[in-house]
Write a structure and sequence with these properties.
By secondary structure, the protein is an all-alpha fold. It has one domain: MetI-like (MetI-like fold, Orthogonal Bundle), CATH 1.10.3720. Helices cover 78% and strands 1% of the residues. It has a two-stranded antiparallel sheet. A hairpin with a 4-residue loop joins strand 1 and strand 2. The longest helix is centred in the middle third of the chain and has 38 residues. The protein is globular, with a radius of gyration of 24 Å. It starts with a helix and ends with a helix.
């Protein structure tokens, strides 16, 4: 198992380096001059050269990349001239909002997908299976931003059941940055309920696509495992259908869903840009939109690499967990 983990860690490090190179090259290839954006359109060439020297843009590209990597992993993520503060504390302020939204959306999508798929597969009802398949296709096919607008029109504007695009709601005394947890730590159940109530609509908009994908994946795996020879042997031995389904079929079909679930969670943390923008959710998604609009070089560059690291680290954790759960992966 040790060799398996070392191999996965080595692969993760190489992938992070590859992602950093891509982020570095893409941003350097943009037809904008960061020094001009900072100094202003009427700055003289001498001023621009001074700003470029301060930013390290006068160095060779290899030296710039090495500075970029060293600074990132030592906590110096640059300075956001649009926000007027260093990038690291700026992202640290916004990241808990994105993580809270992504985790609650993922837990909801994962639990609903597993529960409904397992119940429908056990019931063997063609009608229920058809309804679930149609729901999964619609969930995957409809863009999250469109779902966001529909949810706001129906549940906020028409029915008034949920808050509108006002962000996270009233802020508690910040302990962890996660509003629901901070309210619970303070013993304020009403505040925790209010925080959850603000998450419902953006959480649904973010979760639907993941729900549809997980349903389709788990359903396909269940159908494959049902036709395995060991299932026929269990039936021939008179094992109860409930035991066969939940103790033997489901665990074997669940492993690929576990892997996909980890990747979906990582994608939700860094990929909720449009949903956050629509609901005015103060996460890193809205921060990046503002950074792109202002052409804030340091914010966008840090976000790209941070998103890649989150995705890779979660993928590494899932790989290691998969190796513990399924010995065949370790042996292969």
């Amino acid at each position: 198992m040790g060799k398996f983990i070392i191999e996965r860690i080595g692969s993760a490090i190489l992938t992070i380096l590859g992602a950093s190179i891509i982020a570095f090259v893409i941003l350097r290839a943009l037809p904008t001059d960061p020094a001009r954006l900072i100094a202003g359109p009427f700055a003289s060439e001498d001023v621009l050269n001074t700003v470029r020297a301060q930013m390290g843009l006068d160095k060779p590209l290899v030296a710039q990349y090495l500075d970029y990597i060293r600074n990132f992993f030592t906590g110096d993520w640059g300075y956001s001239y649009g926000a007027g503060k260093p990038v690291l504390p700026l992202i640290a302020e916004r990241l808990p909002a994105s993580v809270e939204l992504a985790v609650l959306a993922f837990v909801s999508a994962f639990a609903a997908a597993v529960l409904l798929t397992v119940l429908v597969s056990f019931s063997r009802s063609r009608i229920l299976d058809g309804i679930l398949r149609a729901l999964s296709f619609v969930s995957v096919g409809v863009p999250p931003f469109w779902i966001s607008l529909l949810l706001l029109m129906l549940f906020f504007e028409r029915l008034g059941w949920f808050p509108g695009p006002v962000g996270r709601g009233p802020a508690p005394a910040i302990i962890t940055g996660f509003y629901t947890i901070d309210y619970l730590l303070a013993g304020n159940l009403q505040g925790a309920g209010t925080a959850l109530w603000h998450i419902v609509l953006p959480g649904i908009a973010l979760a639907l696509g993941s729900f549809g994908y997980l349903v389709r994946l788990l359903r396909a795996n269940l159908l494959d495992v049902v036709h395995e020879p060991f299932v026929t042997v269990l039936h021939s031995k008179g094992v109860a259908p409930v035991n066969t389904h939940f103790r033997h079929i489901l665990p074997n079909a669940f492993l690929p869903t576990l892997t996909a679930g980890g990747l979906i969670l990582a994608q939700l943390i860094g990929g909720s840009v449009l949903v956050e923008q629509i609901f005015t959710w103060p996460g890193i998604g809205t921060l990046v939109i503002d950074g792109i609009t202002r052409q804030d070089y340091a914010v966008v560059q840090s976000f790209i690499l941070l998103s890649a690291i989150i995705y890779i680290v979660v993928n590494l954790g899932v790989d290691v967990l998969y190796g513990y759960v399924d010995p065949r992966v370790r042996r292969s």
